[in-house]
Specification:
about 140 residues; seven-stranded antiparallel β-sheet; about 45% strand; single chain
Amino acid sequence: MRRIYYRFPQRVDLSFAMGMPFNETLKYIAGLNNEESTKTTGKELVKVKTKVEIAVDRATFGEITPDFLRPGVITEAVDLRVSVLALALRGGGKVPIANDIFYLRLSDQQSRTDIDIAKEGRGEGLDALDMKNLLLGAPK
């Protein structure tokens, strides 16, 4: 069964193929949910939080449950919404500096998975290439 978001952007920013089967790719990306990392940008320490949601029905997104990740439950294609929140860790506390939202469409291509990335809005912060690097595990 496909899980498609009917308002997925018509224009995608980046398309690439991930060399893993569809179910493995879905589990891998779902594993990024609630992941936190820190990095240094200039003289500032930045904490990055990632949240991954799945298309529940054609109009909304919701939490990814273990039921969705069982083989055969989702086939052909799935849409995900990935939120990346960046917080600057300053002396007084945490200051939000970016909250980027990306839409991902995973399409089953037998031995590989095609991924389309579209960013919501045009503001500063991460872009589609940064999201690809995050998905592939490359350091930012």
